[in-house]
Amino acid sequence: MHLCLAEISIAVSIILYLNTAITTQMGYNPTICHLLCDKIMTQVRKMLVTSALPYANGHLHLGHLVEHIQTDIWVRTHKMLGHQCISVCGDDAHGTPIMLKAEQLGISPERLTTEMKKSHETDFDAFGIVYDSYYTTHSSENQALAEKIYAQLQARGDIVKKTIRQAYDPEKNMFLPDRYVKGTCPKCGASDQYGDNCEACGATYAPTDLVDAVSAISGAKPVEKESEHYFFDLPRYERLLKEWTRQGHLQTEVANKLDEWFASGLKQWDISRDAPYFGFLIPGTQDKYFYVWLDAPIGYMASFQKYCEQEGISFAEFWGKDSTAELYHFVGKDIVYFHALFWPALLAGSDHRLPTAIFTHGFLTVNGQKMSKSRGTFIEARRYLAHLHPEYLRYYFAAKLNGRVDDLDLNFEDFVQRINSDLVGKVVNIASRCAGFINKHFSQQLADSLKEPAFYEELLTVKNQVSDALVARDYAYAIRLIMESADRINQYIDANKPWVLAKDPERLPEVQAICTMGLNLFRILMTCLKPVLPKMATAVEVFLNDEPLTWSRVNTPLLSHTINDFVPLMVRVEKEKIDAMLAES
Asked: Per UniProt, which keywords does this protein have (predicted)?
């Protein structure tokens, strides 16, 4: 076994600790030595994690939050495990939609994207979603990286110039970007689809391939005009991509979907757009811009580069071709084609490392249906926050996310039941029941020993299972384990009846022992829930007068310890607030 300097330092700490324990006769504490040994045996992982970039032409909605909450829980889990887990994101700030939205508002695209970035960061902060770096694709770092990668691809012969015929709006006198042409999918026949990819079947195509196409800007029937465009020669990377997509970097259902696209043949990818356009000018041209899907994923790199400059971290250590760090992308199933085919090919062609894994999730539905403004179910993050606690949503999404590509349904009847029954009725109930007796009869002092040490050890085993489930992104299983444990703890309190024993002064020590046990078991549950409910966990740390909860610290119970007064940690959901939110939406 080869030890790094940090591990050698910990080993020396163990030796010094044992020497001090012997020479001063202070006594040997196995818990301290166990924690120090744990640090040696746990290899610290270097991890970089990204979420898809929110588009900077509107406020966040609950659909965005599925992915960002999923990512945040995963990152928090790994940070609690002691790993170097860096999360980056930012705003996707280029494209015709932003240009047109700014024009509509009478402001510059730069001002629009700056305001949207502030809005997104405010909403993320309210939901406890934390990124080590949150940046924008409209940055000097991103432009330099995009131009460098383009030059590398060009030098390899991967950039091809072709004259194409594309959709043109005769009323607006502009070429139409893919998302501004709508029609029927040429592959599956789904109606009302955009001009670049089908949300129903996932197929990609040219806007001119759509059946019965219309301009989404003016409603006019597009005409076709010629223009010279720049293409990335994706088919040159087909062999590499076929191998990479079958090496465990993707969920099985995603890899199977990619096989369908391989079967139909990869096509050269148009990476250019005509003026007018808000984005980066392609070097050597006067009126051609990088397509937003070229510089958007490069935005992950730019956001991380900004973080490296601030923290003195090596960029190449995470993005270099020979990097041994881990790179993970969380994305929705509607953009998996770009992330699992175009992006790895761009990275390979520019001598960068490929992702360790891409984690794909499904869409959010509300009450079983696609989010809809007319039905009041297209709910912006800020609208939700005006009525409901942000950690309700974090918990609910966690209870339904399982690491697969399934769609997630936000059913508000189920939402109320889960929050009120699970969080308030089970978890918080344990703390409120036990704290009352400790505060009233024992001056907030816990007992000096555990009444049921075997029960405590059982829950430590569950804690490890929860940690494993969170790492595997099976949050739903983790929540089931936690709630099953909460049921057992409440049953333990019910069976021991501290409220009956408290009536007999001679049996008060038993009450203290029962409630000390209950609060220590509650502490294990809150350690498990900390990645899901970080704000509630912080309140619990204050209530228990405890240091920050970690996976390892909770191995040692709180004994002969003074807690603080209990304060309500979570209140019940009121259906009236949900009704008011839906009415406003």
From this structure: Aminoacyl-tRNA synthetase, ATP-binding, Cytoplasm, Ligase, Metal-binding, Nucleotide-binding, Protein biosynthesis, Zinc
- Comparison of pLDDT for 112 and 202, the residue scoring more: 112
> Tens digits of per-residue pLDDT, 117-128?
999 999 999 999
Q: Both 430 and 339 in a single domain?
A: no
Q: Do 350 and 153 meet the contact criterion of CB atoms below 8 Å apart? A: yes
Same domain, 353 and 483: no
Residues 22 and 104 in one domain: no
* CB < 8 Å & 24+ apart, contacts of 220-224: 220/169, 220/170, 220/171, 220/172, 222/167, 222/168, 222/169, 222/170, 222/176, 222/181, 223/167, 223/168, 223/170, 224/165, 224/166, 224/167, 224/168
Q: Which residues are annotated as a binding site for ATP?
A: 373
530-533, long-range: CB < 8 A, 24+ apart: 530/76, 530/80, 531/72, 531/73, 531/74, 531/76, 531/77, 531/80, 531/470, 532/73, 532/391, 532/394, 532/395, 532/398, 532/475, 532/479, 533/391, 533/394, 533/395, 533/423
CB 300 within 8 A of CB 136: no
Binding-site residues: 185, 188, 198, 201, 373
Taking the C-alpha atoms of residue 307 and residue 125, their distance in angstroms, rounded to an integer, is 18
Q: Write the CB contacts of 24 (distance below 8 Å, at least 6 apart in sequence).
A: none
Q: Residue 32 sits in which domain range?
A: 5-41
Residues 152 and 260 in one domain: yes
> What was the pLDDT predicted at 42?
58
* Domain-located, residue 215: no
Instruction: Find the CATH number of the domain harbouring 473.
Output: 1.10.730.10
Residue 582: inside a domain: no
For residue 388, the model assigns a pLDDT of: 98
pTM: 0.89
pLDDT score, position 484: 99
479 and 567 housed in the same domain: yes
Total domain count, the chain:
3
Q: What is the pLDDT of residue 33?
A: 46
**Feature table: binding site for Zn(2+):** 185, 188, 198, 201
